[in-house]
Design a protein that fits this description.
Elements: E1 4-9, E2 13-14, E3 20-21, H1 27-39, E4 44-48, H2 55-66, H3 69-73, H4 75-81, E5 84-87, H5 90-101, E6 106-109, H6 121-130, E7 135-140, H7 147-150, E8 155-156, H8 171-183
Parallel strand pairs: 1-4, 1-7, 4-5, 6-7, 6-8
Antiparallel strand pairs: 2-3
Length: 193
Amino acid sequence: MSPVYCALVHHPVVDRSGEEVTTSVTNLDVHDIARSARTYGLRGYFVVSPIEAQHPVVQRILDHWCEGSGKKRFPERAEALSIVEISSSVDDAIARIEAREGRSPRLVVTSARSGVDRTSYPAEAARLAQDPQPMLLLFGTGHGLSDRLLQRADTFLEPIQGPTDYNHLSVRAAAAITLDRLFGGKSAPNDPI
């Protein structure tokens, strides 16, 4: 199975008019995606922001839950947040994965926009089960990953579609759904069949 990592990208992303921007880190995104990533067995979760002033904000969150009073009250949250790393860029995250795993990861991207050459979740899950190459799954903030980052992707996952034409999930919800589609489907040992 592929070693899998994810990254929440705050730059380069786009705003609603398609302009490239940098978004702010939010506490809920750090928490909730870490909990999903840990639940589905990811090896790491990178919070990617080039804004150095945002890094201490993320570090304070991690310190509170991994070392402070938060760890005493909610040790399971400390376990989830222990896989979070702050990164200045996607390239920095790639370099860290390569240093750990001995090879560069495949870049897999998500988007709410449909298009050609999208890979289905079952096809990507099958590949992950067979391919030893590490994978870095990118989630975009704002209105999604910028085109210059999308163009670097090795794999482009199909969009998450509901039964309506409305398609504007929070990144936390999209990350949880994506991880479940790639790694879920296993019953717990005591679940009735």
